[in-house]
Amino acid sequence: MQNNTAAANATSTPPKKVVHLFPHSHTDEGWVSTVDDFYTGNDKDGIYVGGVKDIFDTTITELILNPNRTFAFAEMKYFKRWYDDQEAALKDKVKELVLNGQLDLVGGGWSSPDEATTTYD
Predict the structure, then answer these.
(1) Which of 3, 11, 82, 120 is the most buried (most CB within 10 A)?
(2) How many Cα atoms within 13 Å fall on the side-chain side of residue 12?
């Protein structure tokens, strides 16, 4: 009987692991650079390469190309700035991304709250 159990275990496939990825971006308004420099990526002394505009430009393009991709974003100050600069055709595509759940604008605030703060003071 032990041999049959060992043979059955040897031929069974191991359980699969499920990994959930939640692509998102967190962008502070004026933490290590000015709001403008953080958006444009023009802060040559900053610690980041690129800017929030680059995040939107590349991410929206990829969402349009692949309907299986999703993205969440919280800082509406930056989203509004980027969105206001887009042409009508792209704005329509962005609306579609929101409606079909690919682009999730989370939090509803101008800026994401500081989740690392444990108390109000």
Answers:
(1) 82
(2) 9
